[in-house]
Amino acid sequence: MRKGERNLTLRILSTLFCIMVFGGFVCLDKVAIAAPTPDIKIGLVYPLSGSLSRNGNLTLQSIKASMAWVNENGGIKSMGGAKLVPVIVDSGSTVEGAANAMERVSRDPEVALTMGSWASSLTLASSEVSERVGIPQFSISFVDQLNQRGFKWGFYVTPPMSVYGEMGLANALALAAAAGSSPRTVMILSDNQAASKAFNESAKKYLQKRPDIKVVGEEYWTMGTLTDATPIMQKVKSLNPDLVLYSAGAISEAQIGLMKKREMGIKNIFMGSGGWAADPSFRQVGADFLEGMIAFSPIFPHQLTPPEWIKRSLDQSRKEYSDEPFAGQELTYGWVLVPTVAEVLERAGSRDRKSIQEAARKLDIHDVMATRATAKQGMAFDETGRLAKKYQEVLIVQWQGGVARTVFPSQLAVAKAAWPGTK
Question: At CA 147, angle to CA 195 and CA 409, rounded to 5?
């Protein structure tokens, strides 16, 4: 081969080599661009078995529905459209189970944050673990003790139970007065769950300001042990109070009490300490024995809740759990928890737990899509991790014609409050 031909061949080979190398980099770049964005794993610790199983399963369905909505609307954009993925662990209905379940899920380094555990007693246990491990935990639990321990990793999207006397019971009695009714006697029926005890304390503290209303009796049982409500309902029938403050947080136990209420022909007005008292499963009791019954809830479908969100929860529940006639408190919880978490993740722009914690502490959003299911259309946390006071509200929900509807405050009401006779 001549020298000139050899040089030409070398130049051609060199050019081809450069093209191949450059092309390879381009291909590698395209592969890198096309690589899927890692998901954001969220640990869900809820009671999916035991006495609180319906509460936990319905809450799980609303969380799944709201996660799907976030994902379908672009995921977490600050992290390349990362999708939210649930990591589900059954806590059972015991405090030991809640602690153990949180221990398991939070030890997974890919889990960025957690949610749980429905009942305040369970959340007290699970949050001890999340605090020790150092992982953000977002919860709907009410009891004040949760945010009074000096913990830094817990965030509570609902008002504390200590305000339920003034924001719940006081407003319900104001509705009664507006309808020309003046209750004079109250009886307390309650399990021993932390939130139930806190509600009773808040209600009694308020009633101390009302010498015109007398507490005539109190009956308690250990949550998860109520199999026969005959003795407590006999007390109700005997004392015949104008109002019964009812705290049976486990939906299964509340059903037992309400069925006995019907069996014994008791038509006194019952007021439930949470939105569980407006659970659709209670319709089997019969409209007559539910009519006028009130539930106090921080989260329940209302005038500003997007209809699409309600439909998504109902569809999700129908697909994986149960065919519900309407969305209650539990099927709405996810639409406060998940949009809040999505906003926190957008601001954090990271899966790092500490970054998520810091973003949550700085969060303050109002009148945006993420706050549509909240009572005051806003979300921020105070220095203890509790929902900021400016965004606290307790909804009043009432059974009317076999359906539970929000009746207070007026700007969120989907029906007008009614006050039937108590006898």
Answer: 60
Is-contact 262 240, C-beta < 8 A? no
Question: For residue 371, how many other CB atoms are within 10 A of its CB?
Answer: 20
pLDDT of residue 5: 54
What percent of the chain lies above the pLDDT cut of 90? Answer: 88
The answer to whether residues 282 and 272 touch, using CB atoms and an 8 Å cutoff, is no
The single residue listed with the structure tokens 């699970």 is 126
The answer to whether residues 80 and 92 touch, using CB atoms and an 8 Å cutoff, is: no
CA–CA separation, 128 and 105 (whole Å): 14
Task: Walk me through the domains of the chain, giving residue ranges and CATH numbers.
Answer: 40-159+302-392 (3.40.50.2300), 163-297+396-408 (3.40.50.2300)
Partners of 225 in the beta sheet?
none
> Higher model confidence: residue 6 or residue 381?
381
CA distance 183 to 187: 11
Please tell me the distance from the alpha carbon of residue 254 to that of residue 280, in angstroms, as a whole number.
12
Is residue 82 classed as helix, strand or coil in its secondary structure?
Answer: strand
- Enclosing H/E stretch for 219: strand 214-221
Tokens of 279: 């659970």
∠354-356-362 over CA atoms, to 5°? 105
β-strand pairing of 214-221 with 185-191:
parallel
State the virtual CA torsion across 329, 335, 337, 343 in degrees, nearest 10: -160
| Six token digits for residue 400 | 């009317």
Which residues face 45 on adjacent strands? 89, 116
pTM for this model (two decimals): 0.89
Q: How far apart are CA 195 and CA 275, in angstroms?
A: 12
Q: Enter the tokens of residue 42.
A: 């969220």
Residue 47: is it exposed, middle or buried by C-beta count within 10 angstroms (0-12/13-18/19+)? buried
